[in-house]
Amino acid sequence: MEASRTKSVAAPRKGGHTVAATTAKGRQTSQLAATSTFNRSGQQRQATRIKYDEEMAERESDLRSIEITKMVSDWAATLDERSHAKTARRYVATKKEEMRLANQELTAVRRAQLQALYAAEQQQYKDEYEEMGMTFYKERA
Known about the structure:
The chain is mainly α. About 75% of the residues lie in helices and about 5% in strands.
């Protein structure tokens, strides 16, 4: 008898969902309602997940931007340090070259002064020997 009161009708609905009719006690249950509740919570989870993924993508993008900025900053800092090091090396090389040239010039000046001194001494000896009536003999090799 109970089976006569229960009417079970299942009709296909749009989207593949079915609707059940009444139960033995006359209450209507809806699979569509349960499915749509499930879909709503699934959609909420999906929307939450999408929002989370977008936030993570934005954070990763920000992190990449910060890393690029840091790399450029490090490059500029090392460039400045390298520039100072190159300038210092160039300064040392220039000073070294100046010292070499100064020593070379000093050697040339001293050589000229010594030649002048030897020539003056030779002239002095020649003059002294002439005063004594002697001659100064130069032997050339």
